[in-house]
Write a structure and sequence with these properties.
The complex is a heterodimer of chains A (about 100) and B (about 400). With about 100 residues, chain A is of the alpha+beta class. Chain A contains two helices and six strands; from the N terminus they run ααββββββ. In chain B, strand 2 and strand 3 form a beta hairpin. Classes of the chains: A alpha+beta (about 100), B alpha+beta (about 400).
């Protein structure tokens, strides 16, 4: 994304009052207690184990730490993770948007 | 939930994937739009379990090759696998099929036919008529005609029924019959005269059929013809009919009455003792009600209750004896009361003997005396009663 297009998007976002995730490809994260996590707009699974999962995002990644983690279901845009979630962390976001 | 619907019916497999790039495989599957779910990494992070639809199983192979993973199937879930298993057990399948087939066949047979509502018509006749229309046990239900057609056909066959309804409920057919109300047939009567039952004076005569020979206030003798059954002069032109009619006359009855002045009466006091017996053949074994009878006077009522099997009495049964206490009371009557009682009894006797529509015109006590604690009376009743009696006309054969 060029700087101009990003600016334009941000501008339209402010003017039209649209949700951020629609225009900026940001993940929408829904957390139900510490047991269920739904991430929309992900870019794939980068790491996948019982205690740690790393989901690729458009920018950076989302680290999820916990116990007995599993992917309940996965779709191109959406992933649902179940287990005992202890920690959700953004990494490698680089420049803040 | 993003798990595909009806995965149990469509069939799904659980696979274990081994290899370095499990996450690549998951990404590739998600990218390809193949639904996978319940992805569970193994505790030592080398393998992962996941489930996918049977439909997508073949699409899995190139992706596995591309990501360098290997897999094996751990569980097969769902209907398609069960069907395959069933297919291997052919006889079992045949049994299931035979069961349902048999159930269907047996439930499409007529098993029972009930006939309801007939009193005069014999059930056998109705069943026979129904059988001619194809309604019989062990008949196919689909071969039966429509109930309204059946009921019409049956009505035609059974003219004594005014309406016949046929109803099928499951495997039972109910034939409802409403019988036609027919006037009662009069008993056939042979030609006859009406003659007098006793000596009397006619008070009224009404001939419905036949020729009246007497008039009101005529004195008749016993056996005299009142209404003749022969019309005409008794010669060649005459006709013989059944004489019908009503003749009333005054008749005198003499009664010798005796009424005791002391009346004895038995009254149940209501006290009772039950004895129960078990009956085996000709023997009865008393089970309950032992002990002396506490009543001075009593009457015993025995009830037998044998065990029956379809109207055959078995030699085993039950018998109860009810011992009921009786008290006797004596009542002394005044002579006037005794007379009244005697007359009432005589009138009851007259009404019973000569018909309820008899009327006592007068009563006269001819003689009365008291002797040995009894009242003796001789009473003459004048009663108006029906005096007609039938006498068949015997036609002489010789002429």
């Amino acid at each position: 994304m060029t700087r101009i297009s990003r600016r334009l998007r941000k501008w339209t976002n402010e003017v039209l009052d649209l949700p951020q995730d629609v225009l900026l490809d940001l993940p929408r994260i829904t957390l139900v207690g510490n047991q269920e996590l739904t991430v929309e707009n992900h870019q794939g699974v980068r790491h996948f184990s019982e205690n740690k999962m790393i989901l690729s995002l458009h920018q950076g990644a989302l680290e999820i730490e916990g116990d007995e983690l599993m992917i309940r279901a996965i779709l191109p845009q959406e992933v649902m993770i179940e287990g005992i979630i202890r920690n959700i962390k953004y990494t490698g976001m680089g420049e803040s948007s | 939930m993003k798990i595909p619907t009806l995965s149990g019916v469509r069939g799904c497999v659980q696979i274990t994937v081994r290899g370095e790039g499990v996450n690549h495989l998951i990404n590739a599957l998600a990218e390809a739009g193949i639904p996978i779910w319940d992805i569970r990494p193994d505790s030592n992070n080398e393998t992962a379990d996941m489930k996918l639809l049977l439909r997508d199983f073949h699409a899995l192979r190139p992706l596995l090759k591309r990501t360098g993973c290997r897999m094996h199937v751990t569980r097969r879930i769902g209907l398609p696998f069960r069907l395959v298993k069933l297919y291997k057990r052919k006889f079992f399948m045949a049994g299931i099929a035979a069961f349902f087939l048999l159930l269907f066949v047996l439930s499409s047979l007529v098993w029972n036919i009930n006939v309801v509502g007939n009193e005069k018509l014999a059930t056998e006749d109705i069943l026979k008529a129904a059988k001619e229309e194809g309604v019989r046990p062990y008949q196919w239900i689909f071969r039966l005609k429509d109930p309204d057609k059946l009921s019409r056909a049956l009505s035609l066959k059974l003219p004594d029924a005014s309406w016949i309804g046929v109803e099928r409920k499951g495997t039972t057919i109910t034939i409802q019959v409403v019988e036609a109300e027919k006037p009662q047939k009069e008993p056939l009567a042979s030609p006859r005269h009406l003659v007098s039952k006793s000596d009397a004076v006619i008070t009224s005569i009404y001939a419905e059929q036949g020729r009246p020979l007497v008039q009101k206030n005529t004195r008749v003798k016993k056996g005299q013809v009142l209404i003749s059954g022969i019309l005409g002069d008794g010669e060649a032109r005459s006709q013989v009919v059944v004489a019908k009619g009503e003749v009333k006359g005054l008749v005198w009855h003499e009664y010798q009455l005796e009424v005791p002045l002391v009346q004895k009466r038995k009254i149940y006091t209501g006290e009772r003792k039950d004895k129960s017996y078990l009956v085996l053949g000709n023997r009865a074994i008393q089970l309950w009600g032992y002990g002396k009878e506490p009543f001075a006077k009593s009457e015993t009522l025995t009830e037998r209750d044998p065990l029956t099997w379809r109207s055959i009495a078995l030699p085993i049964g039950w018998m109860t004896e009810k011992v009921m206490e009786v008290a006797e009371t004596k009542e002394t009557l005044q002579p006037e009361e005794a007379k009244k009682l005697g007359l009432e009894a005589a009138i009851r006797d007259i009404l019973a003997k000569y018909g309820n529509d008899s009327q006592i015109i007068s009563q006269k006590i001819l003689h009365e005396k008291r002797e040995n604690g009894k009242v003796y009376m001789k009473v003459l009743f004048e009663v108006e009663e029906k005096i007609a009696e039938e006498l068949p006309i015997v036609q002489s054969q010789g002429e």
